[in-house]
Amino acid sequence: MNPTEITRDSYNATAQEYQAQTNKIPTEDKAQDFLRYLWPGQRILDLGCGPGRDLKYFDSKGYEVTGVDISDEMIALARRVIPKAKLMVSGIEEVELEENSFHAVWASASLLHVPKDKMGAVLDKIHRCLTHAGVFYVSMKKGEGEEVLKDEPHQEVKKFWNYVTEEELESLLKAHRFEIIRSTTYDKSTDYQTHPWIAVLARAQKS
Hints:
There is one protein chain. The protein is an alpha/beta fold. It has one domain: Rossmann fold. About 35% of the residues lie in helices and about 30% in strands. The strands form 2 sheets. The chain has a 7-stranded mixed sheet, with helices on both faces. Strands 6-7 form a two-stranded antiparallel sheet. Helix 3 links the parallel strand 1 and strand 2. The N and C termini lie far apart (about 40 Å). The model has no long low-confidence stretch (mean pLDDT about 90).
């Protein structure tokens, strides 16, 4: 199987357990920092929205939300959490997004399933769908290389992982016309998170 199929099948197999576990992970601080650069009513794309936890939070703050996820099981859970949201089943590499259609893109723990040789095209797609100075949040596991590995919380499934260093991720974003606002490295904070992470907040530059 290719990385897209591995990702889809693993999340379909563990959707409900994933929802139960990730609901325990505090994310409000990161989401609030992201929203500081936006106005209520603006359009947010959650790329790799999973079961809709973050979509629900953004909606509760008055934003127009759209969610994309490769797993139809995840999207089914998200529909229960936030029925009025626009939701699409699609891989990140395959999804079609209109130019200048979002004020912000939230990609929390999703681009880490995109192979390194596909990252440039994905970032170009994200840049294209953002308005000028649109806000982009991305978080990925810290490390080097790529691998297919059993998912530690879900030993019955495997996932494809693309690890990045802080310098690698920042350089990649800058090369695809994003201005870095802030970059943060953080260690695991729960039993579910067993790996250090990198989170970057950036803006799309179009002029």
